[in-house]
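ok trying again, last paste got cut off:
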Amino acid sequence: MEKEPIRIAQIMGKWLGGGVESVVMNYYRHIDKNKIQFDFICDDDSTNIPYEEIERMGGNIILIPPYQKFLKYHKELKKVLKDGKYKIVHSHINTLSVFSLFAAKCAGVPIRIAHSHSTTNKREKKKNLMKQILRLFAKVFATDYMCCSELAGRWLFGNKQFEKGNVYILNDAIDLKKFKFDEQIRINVRKELNISNDTYVIGHAGRFVEQKNHNFLLDIFEKLVLKEKNVMLMLIGQGPLEENIHTKVKKLGLEKKVIFLGQRDDINDLYQSMDVFVFPSIYEGLGMVAVEAQVNGLSVVCSTNVPKEAMISDKMTFLSLNENEKWVNELEKQMNNRKAIPQFNKELYKYDIERQCKSLEKKYLEMIINEKNIKRFEIKNK
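nice, full thing came through this time. structure:
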């Protein structure tokens, strides 16, 4: 009789098609489904959940009330976890994992993973206050800690836990082959988007939220347009501040220079059409789009708030958000750098999904074995 795969409950929160969802789906596509299967537990007001793809691969999507309706959330999540008889719950909602893992503990789930995908910044005062309060409880109901980078791990779990080796770094990973530069795709995408060959395209991908700093990006772009006429800004993503950015574009008279592409699932092809990638985030846990852009051969101009771990080539430049003029000059300097072949460092391979999937499979299976050993030890010593 064939052994059933281990089902792991992936707590996703509100699925909006952002970076975290993309990372988890990358792992799901490549993981050995004969050994491990994912079930995705999402808020019932989620958008952009890829139902068909998940169900085709054997996963389940379970919708529950959002954490803001705490009593309903707790009751429903506890029931789902209990009924599913999950051995592992993997929570991807950063500081909010205190709520999901509390329900998991109440449901008797033995292995409860808190995963840090992000950090914080003083500029988001209201959000930051909530994060700092919840951060104090992040470890309370977790049995295991994971993070996407050292910075994210230290921020949520503390320096002491990180230095003791108690925080497992699970690198955000991609299919490297999928992001390799292809001249024909570049021609096709530019034709489809009606972008001429001699237009210099500055690209950005990220949700329209304060963290991604679209206002700063537009200020920089406005100055660049005064110096270079044949430039275009490509914005990929969606979010609550999108309408504000549309309004600002009109106010600056840049409607013909800025293209909004919304949420896309062909971002690997869209990179091909760009000439430089810009990433002025206020904070990042890692910034996987910056890694993807470099794999494609693009120069990346990013803020000093992006972790150094995202630098996998000699085509990444870090600039302070206080030096607007330097951003303009750097983007102008990169205008003729698209064809320069990047020199990758050894860090590239830690973002290879094939390698990282093997590590995650091994980690999950080790957790199950360790949990069984602990149970045997407890029974033996009763």
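cool. DSSP finds 14 helices and 13 strands in the chain. Residues 376-382 have pLDDT under 50 and may be disordered.
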